[in-house]
Amino acid sequence: MPSAPEDHLSGFVVAIDGPSGSGKSSVSKQVARTLGYGYLDTGAMYRALAWWCLSENVDLTDPEAVTAAAHRLPLSIGTDPDDPTVTVGGVDVTAAIRETRISTNVSAVAGVIPVRELMRVLQRRLISEAGAADGGVVAEGRDITTVVAPDAPVRILLTASEEARLARRSTELHGDADEASVEATRAQIVDRDKADSAVSEFSVAADGVTTIDTSHLDFEGSVRAVLQVVGAAQA
Ligand SMILES: Nc1ncnc2c1ncn2[C@@H]1O[C@H](COP(=O)(O)OP(=O)(O)O)[C@@H](O)[C@H]1O
Ligand SMILES: Nc1ccn([C@H]2C[C@H](O)[C@@H](COP(=O)(O)OP(=O)(O)O)O2)c(=O)n1
């Protein structure tokens, strides 16, 4: 039986939220590796649901149909930072959920409130299981610091300027941050964040949440900044 969301989370939980391209996934994974903790990519869970809806021809404009699909979702997600494999019904969708067709449709499923309630219960269970197994877990998304794990001892909002986020995603997707590549990336970053911010607040830190602005940090600097916050909380 899934744990009630109110149940105490096992292990030391590091909750990280932020907009697209702020470095949540890459930084969280490296922090988890360094600490020997588990890693939970909650965005991958919404992406897996979007993938499942598309493959089952579920009407993404119908919240009830999307909610029913979420109840049936045969999801398995790995919490090893070196192998965060995502499978749906036994199919490895780890790479497929990063495709543009998923990025452009994922907000439609993430915007359905009953889906978010279901995900919150599942995410708390996964966080607790990984925390119990590894002593701690780094969980990242849009509402981890506020809704999924507001009780976590470390809560961080990872931000970066729109310019920096666009350049990073553009380089990742197109191998370049020239004007054309940045423009081609804009819809994936700016428009999606706008849609996602209708259901979660991830541009301003909630009370007790530490903001880390990575605009002028390189990747290693961002990892160090997060580890410093964790170290201070554990001292
Ligand atoms: N501080 C940083 N400086 C430069 N590049 C970064 C930094 N953090 C992440 N990146 C790079 O930016 C891209 C997007 O990071 P990612 O972790 O996927 O962000 P998010 O999960 O917030 O969308 C990746 O290619 C990553 O390697
Ligand atoms: N806790 C979460 C995590 C992600 N989401 C939504 C918002 C995003 O558009 C999608 C995909 O998230 P993901 O973190 O993979 O997206 P980015 O890699 O940051 O671009 O899921 C959410 O609503 N709540």
Number of strands: 8
Shape: globular
Oligomer: single chain
CATH topology label: Rossmann fold
Radius of gyration: 17 Å
Major beta-sheet overview: 5 strands, parallel
Q: How many domains comprise the coordinates? A: 1
Q: What is the overall number of helices?
A: 10
Distance from first to last alpha carbon: 35 Å
What percent of the residues sit in helical stretches (DSSP H or I)?
40-55%
Q: Supply the CATH superfamily name.
A: P-loop containing nucleotide triphosphate hydrolases
CATH architecture: 3-Layer(aba) Sandwich
Rounded mean pLDDT score? 94
- CATH class membership: Alpha Beta
Percent of residues in beta strands: 5-15%
Order of helices and strands: EHEHHEEEHHHEHEHHEH
Low-confidence stretches: 1-5
Strand order of the largest sheet: 2-6-1-7-8
User: What hetero molecules are in the model?
Assistant: adenosine-5'-diphosphate, deoxycytidine diphosphate
Supply the helix-strand structural class: alpha/beta
